Amino acid sequence: MYPTLVSAAASTGASVPLKLLVLIVVFVVAVPLFRKVRKAASENRKRRWVEDGLMDPPITGPGSARSDQPEA
Question: pTM of the predicted model, to two decimals?
Answer without folding.
Answer: 0.53
